[in-house]
Design goal:
heterodimer; A: alpha/beta; six-stranded parallel sheet; 28 helices; 18 strands; disordered N terminus; B: alpha/beta; about 25% strand; globular
């Protein structure tokens, strides 16, 4: 009864292993759970695949139907087929009853509206939600955790509801009223408390041993006991899996054999007369020890959801010893991402005998793999960590870093690493040198300083080997704002981030002069994110005030909502993005405009200085360390657009002055922001570590 | 063979009655099978109620000591130090042994100097009943990676006294964030080449309650002391 599409999917070579996995799961499940409660377990790897999830959801639906006490007709029909043809019968039955999630779209309006089938919702996210349900910790309690998403969109809520329905039916096969109450209550709580932890208290799925649990709930019922005899365990869980394992070398095959072995050992204990005698005698001393009341069994490591995450992380980590682990949130296109890669290269140069690993802790994104030095490995563990509650995520990173035991860990903007350091850093430093970069404060809309310096400096600086800044400005600000004692303040160290490019032998200003005759109008360049911080609104006002000048701009909103561009002045030409400064027409423009509201030291400015590009820019954060009245045209922060216009007019009025200041700009960059200077600073820093 | 049976107490009060009864029953069963016994009671900073429960311990042959460690591991070390037996086993004052714990453990441990015995499973009682199954380090189900994130075995072990003298329990340093002395001791003994195994046919009954020690562990967010076992590449595991 399966659709042709379904059949095609199942037969594709790429999916056979997933079916094998599901078959292994079900072999195990059905070995335990005929006429009993059922648990479907997936291992870590395939669960992240959308297709595997779809297949798995079918299984969940099937399970729900099997367990549904009021659909006896379907149940019988399905049970009759389940042993031999479970894979065939599921879709039609699932779609036909109980309002469960229909898996296969059949073209009906309902299916067209379905966000999951339509593909408008992240299946990965739903998997993550479902994973929380299935692996929720704690005995007999069920938690829904809303991650860090501030809002739960309606489609995700719907999709989640479908999962909840399945689970709720799965776990509450006896009471329609309870089921309805559960759905209503869970949804209302979910909707109203998205940032909290919602206890819906229904003894849902507390751990990944439910098959075993349902067995262990009734250790003294002879019928139940017989149904879960060790022979069944061996045959269904052990032998079948062993056969499957022999056919497949896939490392992600779930191996229940040790669990079955442990279960056998305990079964042999609690089924025998000895157990009864132990309990009888103990109950004489302590009546609370009731004979036969065991309702759960925990077998390490299977009962602990952290173990699967830890094993999955270990699979991804190279089996090597690293001198340095750099923790980053991701590797996108930001300045901090670039600094992390330059730092990795610098470490390789300064400590050529040590290896460097970059751990992506907050997101798998890696937009600029070309920034990574060849011999540096970058591993994403964010998706694996995302399965755990926050407190466990921090702990897991602590365990992993302790396990890797590098000589040093350097945090470059990983929020998780900051949190881990704040919690465990004072202990971790007994084995590992800890460093962390700070770049700048962020600002709220009302101008209040916020961000990592505010959140973590005072709690971590005392035990860090060094708090690194990329500007003298921030170093001074930290010392001024927090007034640490000298022994802490001395460990706040400026490391001037290097430019990626060598200084141009002919400055952009000179090249520009060579082409000035070909430009009918003067040109000013600007590039940056179209976020509040970068003040593209200033550019628009300046352009309005300077209709005789063209403004060529590059940028897109990344953190904030995109600005209204419908009234863009006609002399602004806005492109979405660029790959590198060498793609920009520096030699065919007269000036660079920089307008940020707050900054540390933007890599943009360093790169442009190396190229000798004349610049008008906001004198903010660490920028004055490079851009001053000798090297360009600085404009005080919070100045009106007119101040920028004045500076631009002055710069555009004198080619000689542009040339002179651009050369000074470049010379200053060469003095402080070369890679050689960076490695020299880095060597001095690491030499203070002493012998391990 | 002489077995030193150490019972440690703190603020358990009346809860100790069931534990004492269990302790004495296991001693009686072992004595009946010809095991020489050396019962030792260590009251570590006890309150009056707890002290009262043990006031007649000397009358049933136990040696009673009052200490001022304020630390469970040091109490155990002290008990082992006072003991005269070739073997040592522990019971906390709110838990119970199965009646056969001493006899079965002795049979299981005696042939191998590197063995440390644990109950086959712990029945956790209180709010609900559940079994915590002790993993066999010698089985294929054992995974040292799990020992790196959590503890496989509790501290109510049965082992040679020489083991405890070679690898004593470490003093918890809760304010600095180091605790879980039983987990730490399991790590240290593994590194020293000892093997932790469940003793077939034995159970411990552990009362589910939040002790002052575990509350402090939570307050200080403690972890075990880092050891070589934590290292992925150089632990020897």
């Amino acid at each position: 009864m399966s659709s042709s599409n379904d059949s095609g999917e199942r037969n594709s070579p790429a999916l056979r292993s997933h079916w094998r996995q599901i078959y292994a799961d079900l072999t195990f499940i059905f070995g335990f759970t005929k006429k009993r409660k059922i648990f479907v377990r997936g291992d870590e790897t395939p669960m992240s695949l959308a297709l595997r999830f779809r297949l798995f959801l079918r299984v969940l639906n099937v399970v729900a139907i099997i367990k549904h006490p009021f659909s006896s007709g379907y149940r019988k029909e399905f049970r009759n087929g389940v042993v031999t043809r479970w894979d065939v019968a599921r879709t039609q039955i699932v779609g036909a009853t109980r309002g469960l999630h229909p898996i296969q779209g059949d073209g009906s309006p309902r299916h067209k509206r379905d966000p999951l089938l339509r593909g408008s919702i992240s299946v990965r996210q739903i998997v993550s939600d479902a994973w929380f349900i299935l692996k929720a910790p704690g005995p007999g309690r069920y938690f829904v955790i809303a991650h860090s998403q501030p809002e739960m969109d309606i489609e995700r809520t719907r999709a989640f509801r479908q999962v909840l329905n399945v689970v709720s039916i799965l776990r509450h096969p006896v009471s329609a009223r309870m089921r309805k109450d559960f759905r209503a209550r869970s949804l209302s709580k979910w909707a109203t408390a998205p940032n909290g932890m919602v206890d819906i208290g229904r003894h849902l799925v507390p751990e990944p041993l439910l098959g075993l649990r349902s067995w262990s709930r009734h250790p003294f019922s002879s019928t139940t006991r017989k149904a879960y005899r060790g022979a069944v365990l061996r045959r269904q869980a052990g032998a079948n899996l062993a056969r499957l394992a022999a056919k497949s070398s896939r490392e992600n095959l779930v191996d229940y054999t040790p669990l079955a072995a442990a279960a056998q050992r305990v079964e042999s204990l609690i089924e025998g007369s000895l157990y009864s005698e132990i309990m009888r005698r103990a109950a004489v001393h302590e009546p609370l020890i009731e004979h036969g009341a065991v309702d759960r069994m925990a077998v390490a490591p299977f009962y602990d959801s952290r173990h699967a995450t830890h094993k999955a992380i270990r699979k991804r980590l190279p089996a090597e010893t690293f001198g340095t682990v750099i923790c980053v949130p991701w590797l996108r296109t930001g300045g901090a991402d670039l600094v992390a890669c330059l730092l990795a290269q610098g470490l390789l140069d300064v400590r050529p005998d040590e290896k460097v690993l970059i751990l992506r802790t907050d997101s798998p994104l890696i937009d600029r793999p070309d920034w990574l030095p060849d011999s540096v490995q970058s591993v994403d563990i964010s998706d694996l960590l995302g399965r755990l509650p926050q407190a466990e995520v921090e702990y897991m990173l602590y365990v992993v870093l302790l396990g890797l035991s590098p000589r040093r860990v350097i945090n470059v903007n990983s929020r998780l690493c900051w949190q881990m350091m704040a919690r465990f850093g004072a202990r971790l430093v007994s084995d590992i040198k800890l460093y962390s970069y700070m770049f700048c404060w962020d600002q709220t809309e009302d101008g209040k300083k916020v961000g990592y310096p505010d959140m973590f400096f005072t709690s971590t600086a005392p035990f860090l080997t060094a708090t690194l800044t990329d500007t003298e400005f921030l170093r001074r600000e930290l010392l001024l704002a927090y007034r640490p004692p000298d022994n802490v303040g001395d460990k706040v160290v400026s490391l001037f981030s290097p430019a990626r490019t060598k200084p141009w032998s002919i400055t952009a200003a000179e090249l520009s002069l060579a082409t000035v005759q070909e430009r009918p109008r003067q040109r000013v360049l600007w590039a940056g994110r179209l976020d509040r911080q970068k003040r593209f609104d200033i550019v628009q006002r300046v352009a309005t005030l300077m209709p005789d000048v063209d403004f060529l701009c590059w940028g897109a909103a990344l953190l904030d909502a995109p600005p209204n561009l419908s009234t863009l002045p006609t002399n602004i030409k806005l492109e979405s993005s660029f790959n590198g400064f060498d793609d920009l027409p520096l030699q065919d423009a007269d000036l660079w405009l920089f307008t940020s509201q707050w900054e540390g030291m933007p890599t943009t400015i360093i790169e442009l200085a190396m190229r000798g590009m004349p610049m008008v820019g906001t004198s903010v954060g660490g920028v004055p360390e490079l851009l001053n009245p000798e090297t360009g045209w600085p404009v005080p922060v919070d100045s009106p657009a007119g101040a920028y216009v004045g500076a631009i007019r002055e710069a555009l009025s004198s080619a000689d002055e542009r040339l002179k200041r651009a050369r000074a700009f470049q010379q200053r960059a060469v003095r402080y922001y070369t890679f050689e200077n960076y490695t020299r600073q880095l060597r001095l820093l690491l030499d203070k570590e002493g012998v391990r | 063979m002489l077995v030193t049976a150490v019972m440690t107490a703190h603020h358990e009060g009346k809860l100790a009655r069931a534990s004492i009864a269990s302790f004495r029953e296991a001693l009686t069963v072992a004595a009946a099978q010809g095991v020489d016994l050396d019962p030792v009671i260590v009251l570590d900073r006890p309150d009056e109620a707890t002290q009262a429960e043990y006031s007649n311990a000397p009358s049933w042959g136990a040696r009673l000591f009052v200490t001022d460690f304020g630390d469970p591991g040091q109490s155990r070390n002290f008990g082992a130090g006072q003991g005269t037996g070739e073997f040592v086993t522990y019971l906390d004052s709110d838990d119970l042994w199965s009646f056969n714990w001493i006899t079965e453990s002795l049979k299981f441990i005696a042939p191998d100097e590197k063995l440390i015995g644990h109950s086959s499973a712990n029945l956790i009682f209180g709010e609900g009943h559940w079994l915590w199954v002790h993993t066999d380090q010698a089985s294929e189900g054992f995974d040292v990676d799990y020992q790196r994130i959590a503890n496989h075995w509790d501290g109510l072990c049965f082992t040679r006294r020489s083991t405890l003298l070679e690898v004593p329990f470490r003093l918890n340093d809760l304010p600095r964030g180091y605790g879980h002395e039983d987990w730490d001791w399991n790590n240290l003994t593994m590194l020293a080449g000892y093997v932790h195994r469940p003793v077939p046919g034995t159970m411990h009954m552990k009362r589910q309650r939040v002790s002052s020690q575990s509350r402090q562990c939570a307050d200080f967010d403690v972890v075990p002391w880092p050891t070589r076992l934590a290292l992925y590449q150089a632990s020897g595991y």
